[in-house]
Amino acid sequence: MKKIFIILFIFLFSSISFAADIKVEMLNKSADGKIMVYSEDISRIDVGDTITWVPTTKGHNVEFLAGPDGWEIPKKSKMNAEYSYTFKIPGIYFYQCTPHKVMGMIALVVVGDDTSNKEAISKVKVFAKGKKKLPELLNQLK
Questions:
Q1: Interatomic CA distance for residues 80 and 66, integer angstroms
Q2: Which CATH number does the domain housing residue 26 bear?
Q3: DSSP class of 59
Q4: CB count, 10 Å around CB of 30?
Q5: Conformational region of residue 51, where left means phi above 0, alpha means psi within -120 to 50, and beta covers everything else
Q6: Phi then psi for 42, rounded to 5 degrees?
Q7: Is 6 contained in some domain?
Q8: Nearest to 85 by CA among 55, 61, 113, 52
Q9: Can you give the pLDDT at residue 109?
Q10: Above 70 in pLDDT, residue 32?
Q11: What is the Cα–Cα distance from 82 to 23, expressed in whole angstroms?
Q12: For residue 133, pLDDT beyond 60
């Protein structure tokens, strides 16, 4: 009986999954020399996971531009402040650093491996270097 209880206990608790907390840095310069970037161009996470954006220098923020249907765009983050967001709806989310959008400081979050709103994201108005970078990022998605 004790063995059955132990097996049942292991089975029940091994199937529980915990949400992850991912860190994305806001950088003036990446290790490979790119300027004004997030440490990840594309973050792939599960529903319920949280991303925390961490400024490594002053002058950065997070401003969401688009996401999946049924999602409300949150207010942009404060400048120079750590910002966390928990993703509850599957799909692609598109965000930028407001003061550096013309320099192509944009990125995507793919939640639940759902890319069904890829075409809608491709139609978001972007500026300067972002016009080239957004299609490149979208082409990396399946």
A1: 22
A2: 2.60.40.420
A3: S
A4: 14
A5: beta
A6: -135, 120
A7: no
A8: 52
A9: 98
A10: yes
A11: 10
A12: yes
Where residue 116 falls (left for φ over 0; alpha for ψ -120 to 50; beta otherwise) is alpha
32: amino acid identity, one letter: D
Helices marked H in the chain: 2-14, 118-122, 130-139
Q: Is 29 domain-assigned? A: yes
How confident is the model over 2-20, as pLDDT tens digits?
A: 544 444 344 444 334 578 9
| Residue numbers of the domain that contains 108 | 18-139
Residue 84 covered by a domain: yes
Distance of CA 131 to the CA centre of its chain: 19
Q: What is the DSSP letter of 67?
A: -
For CA atoms 72, 92, 133, 23, give the dihedral sign. positive
pLDDT of residue 59: 97
d(CA 96, CA 60): 9
Alpha helix (H) residue ranges in 33-113 = none
Other beta carbons within 10 Å of 111:
24
- Which residues lie below 8 Å from residue 13, measured CB to CB, with a gap of 6+? none
Q: Is residue 77 part of a domain?
A: yes
Residue 45 CA to residue 109 CA, distance in Å, equals 7
